[in-house]
Amino acid sequence: FADLIYRLADFDPARDNYEIGVSFNEADMHDTALHYFLEADKHETSVDTYIAIANCYLALEQSEKAVVYANKATMLDPYSLEAWHCCIYANGEAGNFDEAQRAADYYLAIDDTNMKVKALKLAALLSQEKIQQANEFSRQITKNADCETIAEVASIYMSFGLTDTAYALFDSLTEEQIQQIENVNILESYVDCLFSKQQETRVISFLESHPDLLVDNPPLIVLLADAYIAKDEIDKAMELCRKNTEHYLVRLMYGNLLNETGNASLTLGLLHDDLKKSQDPRLFIIMANAAWKCNDLAAARRYFNKAMRLNKTMTMEIAPYVNEDMVNFFSKNKS
Description:
- The protein is mainly alpha-helical.
- The protein has 21 helices and no strands.
- The model has no long low-confidence stretch (mean pLDDT 92).
């Protein structure tokens, strides 16, 4: 009884609700955490609580509500870097890129050394298609910067489809500097950029010297296979795909290669199990091509029609590249 009285006397509703909320948040129970953070806010106004509430709303994909509490945090303490960082991210998630840029400017006015915040500001500028401002800001960032910073800026441009700018930045780095970069996402962006600029030889050289990047990375495996194909090294592409068929994207690539190398019957077996669980038009286009090459027109039509039902636009964009004769035949012969 005495212990209960002590704990009741020591109970602080703001502090204790906040601490309970933190525990639930760490367990990814964001709904429950939000309840306790809101309870804490009823008893005491706090920057930490506002930020916690905003982050919960972000985790629950309610970005507009997150913006409200992130803004409250910055108003309560205009010098809180954590509050401004939360405000940048919340506005970015809500699509308020002008506000995200403004929040980044406030943050950088307090601390201009944070590269992550600079990256968020650059992304906000590019999201608003303020290309001239973005280019000017990126020059400020990359002036006398280390190789990782330059590559990160390049990868941001790449994510917005600005391949030429990304390539110029990546190409300003030496091979030795590229080798020093540890961020896997940046390295993936670098390889994607090289491939987009038809630098297949460099793609092959880089990925063959970094086999660790290919581990459990289907997009890069497919990209390397595409690079081999572009250099007419079909056998290498086939072998790479054959060794990585546990990945769906690689199976699609391998099935397409089997079709094109006279092994369409193997494609039918390779992708058969995927038919039960996939709603991907690409799968059914590849299967239609395999059945067509095996002279099973009924199956080919069935697969082609399924692809058309799933996504007619995508099918009519992709299928002619896979097998134009098949598409023309089915277009002229509806039944």
